[in-house]
Write a structure and sequence with these properties.
With 244 residues, the protein is of the alpha+beta class. It has seven helices and eleven strands. It has a five-stranded mixed β-sheet, with helices on both faces. The chain has a four-stranded antiparallel β-sheet with strand order 1-2-3-4, with helices on both faces. A two-stranded antiparallel sheet has the order 5-6. α4 crosses α5.
């Protein structure tokens, strides 16, 4: 019986021994960075990078690299020359991916063209010029449902405009009248439930939406910033040709 247990015990010992250096390096890196960069943002994750001897530091959805002792910090992209892949870009894309089905669509303004079978979500500020340009480009697209999450992040009267639009009798029509024609939304009525706007802001912080417009596709990937209708159409067709 003993000779049967020996291989298993040896394997367990090897696995434990392999795990300890990784844990030790992570602890050493955290300690070193905390000492050398006391004002650095909170580190969310430290793990071995694809390149041997390099460690990945994740802060939110941003990636940095360091050596096993936390002595050197590298800000840049890690490229696999053999595979011709930008490993940093792939990792950031993975971190930014969102489960579309988990989005609280009840907190969004909704409009569609045609069948609406292709869906996108957009985080937008009513005073965002790029958002207005993007909204105009969407009007010519076919078979699209657009969910717009109002996030007043640009200051000024963005919070008041967002509340006025959300609280309007026809919020979607009011949104489009403002974004496409510059028609001022009517003042929000007293007692309007505008809790959706605060929830949208909280959601935007949670998924690291740092600017508007931010566009989310059904596969969970996002497009930061305004894109042309032509480029969006290309992305949607690549996503699901059968829906195009």
């Amino acid at each position: 019986m003993l000779h049967r247990l020996l291989p298993t015990a040896a394997l367990f010992t090897a696995l434990v021994a392999a795990a300890f250096p990784a844990q030790a390096n992570e602890a050493a890196i955290r300690k070193a960075i905390a000492e050398r960069m006391p004002n650095a943002p909170k580190i969310d994750e430290i793990r071995p990078a694809p390149m041997p001897g390099l460690w990945e530091i994740r802060i939110g959805n941003e990636i940095r690299y360091t050596d096993p002792t936390g002595t050197y910090l590298i800000e840049g992209e890690l490229i696999d020359l053999k595979a011709k892949k930008n490993l940093t870009e792939e990792r950031v894309t993975q971190l930014n991916r969102i489960d579309f089905a988990s989005l609280p669509l009840k907190d969004a303004l909704v409009w569609k063209t045609g069948t609406g079978k292709r869906r996108i979500a957009v985080f937008a500020d009513p005073n965002c010029g790029y958002c207005k340009r993007f909204e105009k480009g969407l009007q010519d697209m076919k078979d699209v449902t657009v969910y717009t999450f109002l996030i007043p992040i640009l200051g000024g009267d963005s919070p008041d405009k967002s509340r006025a639009i959300w609280c309007a009798k026809d919020s979607t029509a009011t949104w489009q009248a403002w974004m496409l024609k510059g028609e001022q939304p009517p003042k929000a009525p007293a007692g309007c439930d505008d809790g959706a706007i605060e929830r949208n802001l909280a959601l935007s912080r949670k998924i690291h939406v740092n600017g508007t417009p931010a566009i989310l596709l059904e596969d969970g990937n996002r497009i930061p910033g305004a894109v042309s209708a032509v480029e969006l159409e290309r992305r949607l067709q690549a996503l699901n040709p059968s829906k195009s």
